[in-house]
Every structure is written in C-alpha cells, then in structure tokens.
Specification:
Elements (H helix, E strand, L loop, with lengths): L1 E3 L4 H10 L4 E3 L5 H6 L7 E4 L9 E2 L2 E3 L4 H4 L5 H7 L5 H6 L2 H7 L7 H6 L3 E6 L2 E6 H4 E3 L2 E2 L6 E6 L7 E7 L10 E7 L5 E6 L6 E2 L1 H8 L6 H14 L10 H19 L1
Parallel strand pairs: 1-3, 2-3
Antiparallel strand pairs: 4-5, 5-10, 6-7, 6-10, 8-9, 11-12, 12-13, 13-14
Helix pairs in contact: 9-10, 10-11
C-alpha cells in the first residue's frame, strides 16, 4: 500500500491528480474498520490529517477535517447535539464531518442537520472547485457525487440559521451506537419549519408535506403537533435490517419529530 502524506491542499490535489483512484483517509473511523475486517484493500491512500486547510472553521464554512470533538463544543446547537452522540470521546477526536459525507451512510449523525438547513458541500480537484447542495451530493446509501481526483473541502452553511434547532436519535444507547432513526428540526420565529431524518431512507429524508403543514401554524396546537408527527411518519421510507424493523423506524420517526417540535416551541 502506497501512502501520500501531503501537508497542504495543493499537495492533496497533486496526489489525487497522479492517482485519481487513491483512497482518501481522514479520521479513519469508518475506513479502518473495513480494512481491519477485510472489506477493503486500498492500493494507495492519501492521508488528510496533516492538512490544516481542511481543519479550519471560519464563520459558516466548516472544513471537512473538523472533528466531532470540536463540533460538539461549537456554536451550532443542533450540530453540536449530533456531535455528542458520535461514538466515544476517542472516536470524536478522530472522526470528521467530511468523513460523514464521504462515507455517505444513511445513519451518519451529522447528515440530518446538513439536510435540515440546506447546507452545501464544496469539492476541489486540479480542475477547480464546485459546490453541490446536500441532496445533489448524497445520491444513495453509501453513495455520493465525489468524482475521482476530487476531495471534500468542507461544508457551507446558509447565511442565516434558525435559533430554534434540535437534534435527537434513537438507538440502543444515547451515544456510541449507530442510530435506528435520527432527526434534526429547525424552526424560525415566524413558524417556518424544516425537518430531516436519518436512517429511515437511502439518504437523509426531508418531510416536505409535514414541513408545509406545520410552517403554516405560528402557534401549533397539540393536535397540530400530533398531525405533524403523523405526516413525518408517512413520508419516511425505512427498511428492516439487523438493527430495527421498518415499522419501528416509521413509528420512531413520528415520535422524534413531535418531540423535537415540542422542544423548539
């Protein structure tokens, strides 16, 4: 196995230009599990840990190399809540937000927040940069729009983030567990509400009908909150696997949606 260890973004792009099929290694919390158990045998690796440009967080731009340990103490409430549920302290010190995007698992804890706020993903190659909205980048379960020779530079958040924002997930434990279902809800003071859910579809799911219904309610009644949860449960498309049944995931999605809305209210 050949390993390139660039110290700046230009070095990363040069290494990928020379070997577009090289595997990118950031925190390694997903990749190294696959390597250990024989699921992957990369011929060449480009290590990103030494690239300070990818580990910067300036304003609404979060570098792909920013760790969950930093995010959990950051200023973005729901993203910090999600970060605290990612693995153990050791995992959070190594794992990155870019790794969540690169792995593109439907259970990625940071992805519902990015979907709820309509964040964008910035990619770079020797040909230049391009920016994709989250739903353009995440194309399927463990599939994304990253092209050979490209690296995820970071995430761009919108200029305005609602002050009311909440994240929660359901699993066997509160943290150190892959979610059975997760959700992030954001609500403006005027009532506009967005919700995205993880682990209940091939990519994060935005419950658009539920959003439209509850956004029209400046002061939702208990009946409106219950209807919001019902609509969310209708809009997800979960599967049955070794962690949960589709029926439970659908039920859990509605419960999470209702509880997060109640918190924001």
């Amino acid at each position: 196995m050949e390993i390139a260890r660039p110290t700046d973004l230009a070095g990363v792009l040069d290494a990928l230009d020379a070997d577009p099929a090289a595997t990118l290694l950031a925190g390694g919390t997903d990749l190294m599990v696959e390597v250990t158990y024989g699921g992957r045998r990369p011929a060449s690796v480009v290590a990103l840990r030494r690239v300070d440009e990818l580990a910067t967080w300036e304003g609404r731009t979060i570098g792909s190399g920013v760790t969950w340990a930093r995010i959990e103490h950051g200023p973005v409430r729901a993203l910090a809540q999600a970060a605290r549920t990612v693995g153990s302290p050791q995992i959070r010190s190594a794992g990155t937000i870019g790794g969540n995007l690169g792995t593109a698992s439907p259970a990625g804890d940071g992805l519902p927040f990015l979907a709820a706020v309509d964040a964008s993903v910035v990619l770079a190659s020797t040909a230049g940069r391009r920016t994709l909205r989250w739903d353009e980048f995440l194309t399927g379960p463990k599939q994304n729009a990253l092209q050979p020779g490209e690296v995820i530079v970071g995430v761009e958040l919108p200029e305005h983030l609602p002050e009311r924002q909440e994240f929660a997930k359901i699993g066997a434990r509160n943290a150190m567990v892959i979610s059975v279902a997760s959700a992030c809800l954001v609500r403006e003071a005027g009532g506009a509400t967005r919700i995205a859910l993880g682990s209940v579809g091939p990519t994060p799911v935005r419950a658009r009908r539920a959003e439209e219904m509850i956004s029209a309610e400046p002061s939702p009644s208990p009946a409106a909150v219950a209807e919001f949860g019902r609509l969310v449960a209708e809009e997800v498309s979960p599967i049955t696997d070794h962690r949960s049944t589709a029926e439970y995931r659908r039920h859990a999605s509605g419960v999470l949606a209702r509880r997060l809305l109640e918190r924001c209210l």
